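#onboarding

Welcome to the new folks! Below is a worked example of what a typical request in this channel looks like: someone posts a single protein sequence, and someone else replies with the predicted structure as tokens. Don't worry about understanding the tokens yet, we'll cover that in week two.

Example request:
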Amino acid sequence: MKKVFLFIPAFLIFSFTSPNDTISKKEKKFAEKFLKDTEDGVFKAVKGLSDGQLKFKPAPDRWSVEECVKHIAITENALWNMTSATINQTPNPEKRTDIKATDDQVIRKVEDRSTKVKTFDPLKPENTPYKSLSEALDSFKTARARLIDYVKKTNDDLRNHVAVLPIATFDCYQMILFIGAHSNRHTQQIEEVKADPNFPKN
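Example response:
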């Protein structure tokens, strides 16, 4: 689908709830499981699909399953690069007062497909370097493994490293949740394609 979500301005209307300064063992475990579960969801959604099924488009202006995966893969890297860059900068806890979403709200709003927003051109499937589903899945798997490993081992103060985006502000723990929720959002999109009455039988 050409109209896809990247960031949702509705975050701006949420009431501020201050999280703890650092992530706890419980938060680490939650993020690790969430990232693994949403990764598994992508692979389960495309397992066993034929080339015709992967390339089927419900409409000219909508994405195929393969295009959804290419978008997931390229955005996985883009979001992590943004998050990593913020982590490597000087902590900016003074920006936390600009955070308008709780962790749960970040996940729910990113996964909510009732709001459609066009993605940036570099993140569109046709602009990715991936030539096939396999290439996109390999990139996604590598990036997700790196992120899960980071979450397991990090002692970084993710709450006090805040990413200030054009439409909203998130601490870096929330950005990690954002990444997992984003892949799940487009897993739902894949399932919508597969549910189309004209989706090939094989």
